[in-house]
Amino acid sequence: MLMPHPAVLRGLLEEYEAAAANEPADATGAPGPRTRDLAYTLCVSTGTRDVGRALEAARLQLTAAVMQTAKAAQTERTPMPTKAGAKAETMTPVKAPTPMPAAAAD
Question: How far apart are the C-alpha atoms of 62 and 42, rounded to whole Å?
């Protein structure tokens, strides 16, 4: 299943919550059209069919994204193992070697 970007999902969740709290109900007492549209989009984005489950899934996905970002940041700060008494160094990315030019044809 495709996963929406956390920023998009966060925006949908915030917009849905605002619409659900502020948009007046329609003539039958059901949520207004914007709230219904956002509920549908959340359901499609999270692979659910019920807005309650969509909200729960969105919150879980956002929590997982925050945890993954924190874990990645921690990994970037992890020092490299050192020999006893050696100074600890931080891992740095290594550039790929530049390819050698092709030999000229005789």
Answer: 13
Q: Where are the beta strands (DSSP E) in 1-106?
A: none
- Number of alpha carbons in the 13 Å side-chain half-sphere of residue 45: 27
CA-based nearest residue to 54, from 75, 69, 35, 76: 35
| Angle 83-85-91 from CA coordinates, rounded to 5° | 50
Query: What 3-state class would DSSP assign to 79?
Result: strand
pLDDT in tens, 36-94: 999 999 999 999 999 999 999 999 999 999 998 888 887 777 666 666 665 555 556 66
Q: Give every CB contact of residue 61 below 8 A, 6+ residues apart in sequence.
A: 3, 4, 6, 9, 46
Residues 37 and 66: beta-carbon distance below 8 Å: no
CA distances from 18 to 12, 21, 22, 28, 86 (A): 10, 5, 6, 20, 56
